[in-house]
Specification:
The chain is an alpha+beta fold. It has helices at residues 23-32, 38-45, 90-107, 140-145, 264-272, 286-289, 306-318, 339-350, 380-399, 409-419; strands at 2-7, 10-17, 55-60, 72-76, 81-85, 110-113, 116-121, 127-133, 153-158, 162-165, 171-173, 178-181, 195-199, 202-205, 211-214, 224-227, 238-239, 245-250, 258-261, 275-277, 292-294, 323-328, 331-332, 335-336, 357-359, 362-367. The strands form 7 sheets. It has an 8-stranded mixed sheet. The protein is globular and about 65 Å long. The N and C termini lie far apart (56 Å).
């Protein structure tokens, strides 16, 4: 058993059953969430009572079916239960647990967040809380965990899983530990001492004959580690300070490094069409490589209808006046947007130093002019590129009509308006 949700306002009990021989999976799972101890058991008993049952997950990594030879995950969100078959990877058990926890949170007035959140603490006593949402490799963890070279004082909520209250905009972390790619941490990296368990890694012997992990992705891809909470000293499990801004992290070559979205419906639908480019590792044509791929709110682990996430985020933008930005961490045309540029523009925004200007003919969009990333609105080819990328989003939203994922009319109209403004 473990606890999911690290604040009295939202705490759940979760249970995982695995066959003998998969104790490491259970061990990683317990360490990833919150282990049962006297402190957290008392906190759970003092926590807000939710009209929900515990989370129960049954896992049989050796069970395969003919129809699903690569594995099968079944969810019963009404009863907070799941069965994971034919999948040995710990990540499936982590995300399976979060999938049910996010569903419970959505039913109880929270916005489910597959992203990172941090707070900037300023000397005058003020603060700014930002949430960043992006797919693996987008820079989400880099942004969340960066200390900005010591220039700014920050506090981390979590880099992967949290929830935002639609009542008061407070936030709660769902997990204690971190689940990171090991290839980012060679053994001489100080962070490696915080590794608790490791998956998908090889092993070798060092000069002293000691058995040590091979953290780089040499033999197996996606080497991972459950990393201790102690890896970041600036950590809190709940922010009572309301969230101030949400950043959608995308890889879209038509967009400059940062764009501000001023319309609540457009801000939310841009999250619903959170975009990245296809990887060269995928077996697709050159034309397909230039197309956007959409993963709504960077969260493929949703059990409920998409419009609920759309409405939750829209409420944050419209009623709670949360600001919305799009960060491009890929290429702007042919120029790479570096992590230094991304972190620098965030620093300007949170310190209220950023001076945004209109994004050409698009009435609800603004951008931050940056050296080396000139936006030429007199270039018809560029405007056509922006229009086409926005049209791809409109096509995606229209493709959801008549399905369980259909979005409200105002979402469709908001993105449609952008495509007609140039």
């Amino acid at each position: 058993m473990a606890y999911v949700g690290l604040d009295k306002k939202f705490m759940l009990k979760a249970h995982l059953l695995v066959p003998e021989g998969y104790e490491n999976t259970l061990y990683s799972w317990i360490l990833n969430f919150q282990t049962v101890n006297e402190e957290y058991t008392k906190m759970y008993h003092d926590s807000l009572v939710l009209d929900e049952g515990d989370i129960y997950i049954y896992s049989d990594p050796d069970m395969y079916t003919d129809r699903f030879p690569e594995g099968l995950a079944l969810f019963d969100q009404a009863h907070n239960c799941a069965m994971i078959c034919g999948m040995r990877y710990f990540g499936e058990h982590k995300k399976g647990t979060l999938t049910l926890a996010w569903s419970i949170a959505e039913r109880n007035g929270y916005t489910a967040c597959h992203g990172g959140q941090k707070r900037f603490n300023f000397k005058d006593g003020s603060s700014t809380v930002i949430g960043v949402f992006g797919l693996s490799g987008s820079g989400k963890s880099t942004i969340t965990l960066s200390n900005h070279g010591g220039k700014l004082d920050t506090t981390v909520l979590h880099d992967d899983a949290f929830i935002i209250s639609n009542k008061d905009c407070s936030s709660i972390s769902l997990e204690q530990s971190y689940f990171d790619k090991t290839q980012d941490y060679p053994l001489d990296n100080p962070q490696s001492k915080y590794f608790l368990t490791i998956q998908n890694c090889g092993a070798t012997r060092n000069n002293e004959g000691k058995l040590v992990p091979v953290t780089e992705d040499i033999c197996n891809g996606n080497g991972r580690t459950v990393k201790s909470v102690l890896a970041t000293g600036n950590r809190e499990y709940a922010f009572n300070t309301p969230v101030d801004a949400i950043f959608w992290i995308m890889k879209d070559k038509s967009l400059p490094p940062v764009v501000k979205v001023n319309d609540p419906a457009l801000a939310s639908v841009m999250g619903a069409t959170l975009a990245t480019m296809r990887s060269t590792a995928e077996q697709v044509s050159a034309d397909e490589l230039n197309k956007l791929v959409f993963v709504p709110y960077a969260n493929p682990f949703r059990l409920y209808e998409l419009h609920k996430d759309y409405e939750h985020f829209k409420q944050l933008f419209e009623e709670k006046h949360v600001d919305c930005y799009i960060i491009n961490t890929g290429f702007f045309l042919d120029t790479k947007v570096t992590p230094k540029v991304t972190l620098g523009l965030i620093e300007e925004i949170v310190q209220h130093q950023a001076k945004f200007v209109p994004f050409g003919p698009f009435t609800q969009l603004e951008y931050l002019p940056l050296e080396g990333y000139k936006v030429n609105f007199g270039d018809k080819e560029y405007l056509e590129l922006v229009k086409n990328q926005m049209a791809s989003r409109l096509d995606y939203v229209n493709s959801l009509k008549g399905t369980r994922e259909e979005l409200p009319t105002d979402a469709v109209e908001a993105i449609k308006k952008v495509t007609t403004e140039c």
